[in-house]
Amino acid sequence: MAIHVEGLLAIVIFYLLILVVGIWAAWKNKNSGISEGTDRSESIMVGGRDIGLFVGGFTMTATWVGGGYINGTAESVYLPGSGLAWAQAPFGYALSLVVGGLFFAKPMRSRGYVTMLDPFQQLYGKRMGGLLFIPALLGEIFWSAAILSALGATLSVIVDINISMSVVISALIAIFYTLVGGLYSVAYTDVVQLFCIFIGLWISVPFALSHPAVSDIGVTAVNTVFQSPWLGEIDPSDGWMWADNFCLLMLGGIPWQVYFQRVLSASSASYAQVLSFLAAFGCLVMAVPSVLIGAIGASTDWNQTSYGPVPPVEKDESDMILPIVLQHLCPPFVSFFGLGAVSAAVMSSADSSILSASSMFARNIYQLAFRQSASDREIVWVMRITIFVFGALATAMALLTGSVYGLWYLSSDLVYVIIFPQLLCVLFIKGTNTYGSVAGYVFGLLLRVGGGEPYLRLPPFIYYPGWQMRQKEQRLTREVERFVEQRFPYKTVSMLASLLSNAAFSYAAKYLFESGTLSPKYDFLDAVVSRHSKETMDKTTLVAHDNIVLSELAAVKLRHGGSVAGTFVNTDVLTDEGNVSPDSSAEHQ
């Protein structure tokens, strides 16, 4: 296999640029926020909360505009029978950012949280926070693995270098500058990467459009030329499936640590909202060249190109339509620049996800659940170790797991079905407690996993109304695979069931204990009768045993960002108006 020296050189130059910018950002902001009393660990997680509109808008946009976003949009537009009508990611994620900005950014930022899991642990306790960490972590890791896998395939198409080597080098660079500078390095490199994506793809589009093998995309949008029209259509019988997937993108795109890390790093709650709106606009703008490249692929007579007479869809290479168009319809120097754009998209998402996963682990699992007395230096080292571990794990999955996309689809569904309704409850529904949270978690998990996952060959044990048995033939091996297609909007129904069961079981438990129907000794989660117990994060999780006296709390370091109590400033979320706990009643008597 011959290595294209020019392409390899272009990628080396681009990677060095990213590395230099990441190290420069770390050096420039090494003391930012610390002089005001913020711990170094918090500075790594949320950048000292001084990210401005320019850098913040770019980094939030770049987080969503990743390799999966630009490659997936182009693939969806290109696929016969799919087309632009089913390219839901641009509008879905844009609306997700708008909804997040309107309803979620302000309460999260104004209450001074450090990670997305903070309000869960504050209200539901450390054990429930640990359970909610699982789908959040899986989503970030599988997302990183999926886009690293896409990068390896893309590089192998254009540059003819080993997939494993390209994935490992890309991951190492992203891990290194994330280790050095935390959110600052991630944010500043995102600015460079977004410029590269925008310029690289837009440079490629005119050359691809002018290729003699490409027909007028205005004609192929509505007429069958080489394949079905690339505008696509939504069959009425597929309407519920389309709506289910769109709600998954729009609402399921909110409860991700990569999003809230940017929200919580904003210099104010109003800035956090504006960043979300800017990123929504940026997502739509950045999707345009991908849509055009997908349309170009659908309008090409591949027999007139160096690709060969068999179109990509018949070789099961439709997922690589973007790099294929860059290579075979553009001059070499343009395709290499476009390849840099794809690499930029992947790295801008991979570094964000790895940092997000390590932030949640270091703070919500290690510090708040196990080592409340951990020093700031210790937390920083835990973050550095987990950045490397999670990065290595995502890289290994990208190289070794053939079903990495299926794992990501399932984990992103679980984020939507489990974490989104929990976030609604903890921020907006007064009176929910740990019993309701556990019930919502279990109901959502069972209803979603019960629907099966064809990408993982996971058969369903719940057959929703309208299900159909389908079969898919692998074009290269001619193997026929049978699977169950759930045409019912079961993902959204699972999310709603999780939300309703959370509220219902919370109020039922509250009534049973407060009315005396159940004895206080059965409140084993300390969620109703003993509301301010060791499970409540801003009260006494600073200690590891039960017979604690107040004087023992004196040794705890009370610095902004360093103490758990100082972090959770939303005190009234833990109290219900008109209800007095037994402990407080005893104190007033």
Question: What do you see in this structure?
Answer:
The chain crosses the membrane at residues 6-27, 51-70, 90-108, 129-151, 163-184, 191-209, 239-259, 271-296, 333-358, 379-400, 406-429. Belongs to the sodium:solute symporter (SSF) (TC 2.A.21) family. This is High affinity choline transporter 1. The protein has 589 residues and is an all-alpha fold. The protein has a domain at 5-30 and 47-404: Sodium/glucose cotransporter. Helices cover 63% and strands 2% of the residues. The chain is built from 20 helices and 2 strands. It has helices at residues 5-28, 40-46, 53-64, 67-78, 89-110, 118-124, 126-158, 163-209, 217-220, 239-252, 257-265, 269-298, 321-329, 332-370, 376-400, 404-428, 434-449, 490-514, 564-567, 582-588, and strands at 468-473, 480-485. A two-stranded antiparallel ribbon has the order 1-2. Helix 8 (163-209) crosses helix 12 (269-298). The relative contact order is 0.15. Mean pLDDT is 82; it is low at 532-589.
Low-pLDDT runs of 5+ residues are 532-589
Rg from alpha-carbon coordinates: 25 Å
* Helix percent band: 55-70%
Q: Tell me, briefly, the overall form.
A: globular
Could you give the count of β-strands? 2
Secondary structural class = mainly alpha
So what's the CATH class of one domain?
Mainly Alpha
Q: What is the mean pLDDT? A: 82
Q: Do you know the CATH architecture of one domain?
A: Up-down Bundle
Query: How can the largest sheet be summarized?
Result: 2 strands, antiparallel
Within CATH, the superfamily of one domain carries the name Sodium/glucose cotransporter
